[in-house]
Amino acid sequence: MAPNNPIRVDRPAYPVQLHGDLAPDLRRWLWLVKWLLLIPHYVILFFLWLAFLILTIVAFFAILITARYPRSIFEFNTGVLRWAWRVAFYGYGALGTDRYPPFRLADVIDYPARYTVAYPQRLSRGLVLVKWWLLAIPHYLVVGFFVGGGWAAGRSADQNGPMFGLIGLLVLFAAVVLLFTGRYPGGIFDFVLGMNRWVFRVGSYAALLTDQYPPFRLDLGGTDPAAATPPVDQPTGAPGSSYHS
Question: Has the keyword Lipid metabolism been applied to this entry (predicted)?
Answer without folding.
Answer: no
